[in-house]
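[PROTEIN RECORD]
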Amino acid sequence: MKKAVVLFSGGLDSSTCLAWAISKEYKCTAISFFYGQRHDRENKAAKKIASILNVPLIELNLSLPWLKTSSLVDKNKKIPKGSIKKTDIPSTYVPGRNLMFASIGISLADAIGAEAVVMGPNAIDYSGYPDCRPDFYKVLNKAVNLGTKNPTLGKKIKILTPIIHKSKAQIVRLALKLQVPLKYTWSCYSGGEKPCGYCDSCKLRAKGFEEAGVKDPALEL
């Protein structure tokens, strides 16, 4: 059976990507990361959803103090009020995060002989982060197959980004089709018992569910 490493935060996007990989008959191993972010709700969500989907989850703790330049990590910085339209890179950007996570996923894939690393970046309804752009992943995919063992031996590793060109509404519809346990997903940048409803991620998620014409199950818990 073909194998895939799935980078998994427990949010709407990555949960949809995990379910997508399963639907494509990949034997999946998921990885979640705690890198000092201001809350662990997404990590708890990842653990819950991985258990429901019967996927092994590797939980990694990273200690990188320079990431405190991001308001997602530094609790002394205020999470900005969300906006659907982006004109600049918000303070919630974490320096090099997707590149760092991709590198770890690629390392695992190379170690276990996996054919794919599945990631959930989105370039349509997103916060304006530079590491969500399709061109970035095209170049990264080339680098992966030049600098790892298995491709050198003839077994390429593909970086798969199944939702990169989808709107949030399309992602919601795909999640419903794949029977993602949406009520357990967590997308909010803030911690707490319930999503804040004001950050970028909450606003984009709400937009997606509204345009898809369905209620967000996570708000009904």
